[in-house]
Specification:
The complex is a heterodimer of chains A (490) and B (474).
Chain A: H1 2-20, H2 25-50, E1 60-67, E2 72-78, H3 80-99, H4 108-127, H5 131-140, H6 142-152, H7 157-190, H8 197-200, H9 207-224, H10 233-240, H11 243-268, H12 270-297, H13 301-322, H14 325-356, H15 367-370, H16 372-385, H17 392-407, H18 409-433, H19 449-467, H20 470-486
Antiparallel strand pairs in A: 1-2
Helix pairs in contact in A: 1-2, 1-4, 2-3, 2-4, 3-4, 3-11, 3-14, 3-20, 4-5, 4-6, 4-11, 5-7, 6-7, 7-9, 7-10, 9-11, 9-12, 10-11, 10-13, 11-12, 11-13, 11-14, 12-13, 12-18, 13-14, 13-17, 13-18, 14-16, 14-17, 14-19, 14-20, 16-18, 16-19, 17-18, 17-19
Chain B: H1 3-28, H2 32-53, E1 59-61, E2 65-67, H3 69-94, H4 101-119, H5 123-141, H6 148-179, H7 184-192, H8 198-216, H9 225-231, H10 234-259, H11 265-286, H12 292-313, H13 317-343, H14 359-362, H15 364-378, H16 384-398, H17 402-426, H18 441-459, H19 462-471
Antiparallel strand pairs in B: 1-2
The chains are: A mainly alpha (490), B mainly alpha (474).
Chain lengths: 490, 474
Amino acid sequence: MILPCLILIPLLAGALAWAAARWNASAARWIALIAVLADFILTLSLWISNSHAGFAVWFAQTDWAWIPELGIRFHLALDGLSLLLLMLTFFLGVLSVLASWNEITQAVGFFHLNLLWILAGIAGVFLAVNLFLFYFAWELMLVPMYFLIAIWGHEKRIYAAVKFFIFTQLSGLLMLIAILALFFLHHTATGVYTFEYQQLLGTAMSPTAEMWIMLGFFVAFAVKLPVVVLHTWLPDAHTEAPTAGSVILAGLLLKTGAYGMLRFVLPLFPRSAHAFAPVAMALGVAGILYGALLAFGQTDLKRLVAYTSVSHLGFVLLGIFVWNGLALQGALMTMICHGISTGALFILVGALQDRIHTREMDRMGGIWSTAPRLSGAALFFALASLGLPGLGDFVGEFLVLLGTYRQSVVLAVLATIGVLFATFYALRLVQRAFQGPNTHSWRIPDLVPREGLVMALMIVALLWLGLYPRPVLNVFQPAVARLEQLAPGR
Amino acid sequence: MTGHDFVALLPLLILAATPIVVMLAVAVHRSHGVSASLTFAGLAISFGSLWIAAPQLPRQVTPLLMLDRYALFYIGLIVAASMVFVLLAYGYFEKREGDHDELYILMLVATLGSAVLVSSSHFVSLFLGLELLSVALYGMISYPRRQPLPLEAGIKYLVLAAVSAAFLLFGMALVYGALGTMQFGEIAAELAHSGFDRWLVLPGMALIVTGFGFKLAVAPFHLWTPDVYEGAPAPVTAYIATISKGAMFALLLRYFYQTRAHELAPLFIVFSVIAIASMLAGNILALLQNNVKRILAYSSIAHLGYLLVAFQSSGDLAPTAVAFYLVAYFVTTLGAFGVVGILSDSTRDADLIENYRGLFWRRPAIAAIFTAMLFSLAGIPITAGFIGKFYVVAAGASAAMWSLVIILVITSAIGLFYYLRIVVAIYGEATQVKAGPTLALPGTLALVFLSASLVFLGVFPQPLLALIRNLTRI
């Protein structure tokens, strides 16, 4: 029963928050905070209660009939992969509620409704093991995110929101066709109508059909991830979204793309995914370099951070399709750490924008002298983002590079150049925005205790992931081992 | 005819009796409230009588009418939608000057015509039902007869419906000339063995398809739709978009699935072309509009295109997909036009996108309902439209009609643009400070009911799906 609760609590709390905001805006914030915290604690309790069992597959399940004739079931299940991503979801959820505490003043109730419903949709995506339910949750994330950008976003919010919506919706519909094709192929092969993940694994089909269906899934996940060429919605959406929106976009929505690759593309279509791997790896490396290069060229702070996401998620794509134990561990680690470090950067940029009403780096400089705590935190997360040893991002990217080296030296070298670029853009960010003389004579308040708490939590999390990643890697291990077994030619 | 026949016909008989009762009541005392209540009561009794008629089914009453589960389902849907229409129309017309009682009489006649259509098994009853529906609609469309737009729309509809009826009649004549029968079952039998004159049957069928096409407003027979939608009063537009088209589609499905005429090679291509043209024309032309009613008109053209994809698939899934999609489409379209109607004032309809700018900040509940309706039209989860679209795509995929399915997917992504344009306006900054007209209670109730059904069907489609699977096997 815990699994449906993880989805239902935010859904109901969202409706409640909307209703409560009619008489008191703060009530909506508190309801949202308590709901997400409750989910976080529930997930934590799932982690603790299952840690002795070693996180073997599906250690918690809920399976209800929904449309039985077509094999559509409300089937949720949890394994190590889902568990950690859920932890990340609710961790960032708590922080986004806190980060928007003072930023959002307009339609507070509706804002929290959307925020909580996105989290519910994301939790659904990470838990669904019925392809129909997965698609349902996948689409469900979109609408509240669209509202978050379109109502509480910045200057070009409408353009960004519509672009985001259409990109993801179109790619989602392609995935729907792929899901249905798989469904009918499975019916032809076995005579059973089902959308159940476990039953669809290993469906017999011709290589051509497998390749097309795999591509249908791949495109949907590639748009979310984002893979270069399909990434153009990302800088706009991230830049225009309010802080909580950017945190959730970068920290969580992008991860649903990576999750989809790991959960569906590789296990359902191992042969065609293997055949496609060189292309995907090349796209990953292209993303690393392209994202880093463009990040270096930005003057808008938020846009800069958005492009670093393209770069970091390139590592994830590379790690996934290199498809060996090290690289997969690395990809997963990068997913978690990127969520935290980029989320933190977005929160900091948001806090800064709240104070000085601009995101242009040219209008900044010398912030350190007036807001040292804010600037110090920014330095910390910029260093995390460039992959400083001792912080989580380093572990992830290092493992990916190590895994890639075994597969292809050229790609490993190119990806390493990407890490070098990261140093440039991260240091440039810190230098131009926070260091140097305070030419614009900014006088701004430093982080308030609420913001300080948010930053402290994220710093601790990143340090823990960087210095003692073993517990997290252990949770991933069974999932990684299963994926490794699937790799053809091994 | 036996007593059992009359029991089976009970829903139709009650539908026929109600307008007479309302007419008599109007003769005694003219009151908008009384007429609307009587109409609503008559529809409700007719709806209730479905359960009395059900045990007698299936029953062929005269060669004209086939009352089976399929007909029963669609009669139920039509009558329920008419009840919603009464609620929406009452609030809408109450604000306006003039006598409104005759509108309900016309509407009841149109509903009777639709019910005859969905239960017809013969060209004669088909034509009777169609004309009952069309003639009543002329009056309904131009009901606010002192305003130019409704009058223009009424005349346009009159001319085009008359022309399409002529096409239909000519087609029927050709088919009758070739096969010597007007009964669907016998047509099917004649078509099954190949000794018929293709050069009479095929043009005949093509002309029939043309006649149907006008009524369904599928491309290239869609040209009347935007003007009529724009000109007609909002509740009447909802009626045309849902009941008139829904009844016609139910008939189309029954006629072609029974005779299997759509599997004749040229007709299959004709239907594919119509489906593709409708999806493209509807979605692309809607992008150019600034009037919400015209946007919804083009969107309905596209939706009929999606329905044709399911129709084309002819698989086991097709009747279920069509029936579910129609229910979802009924709920959504009635809801969308209901919102337009409820926000209209006494002189003109709230049909410009500008009328909706900032609606969310003025009336959050109505804005949320309208948003839900628009998202359902776009096929977004937790609305009925999502399940509907899923079934349509599944039906298409089950028949491996990949090109149709991919066009459906791409055009519906294009369709998002214009739905989002309205949504963007709703949540945009308010330019209009005044709150607009006060909301009529019956209309509000109808909207609450529709949005509750919308979400219920989107989350728990199983009860309706079970009902449909049970009822709509042809």
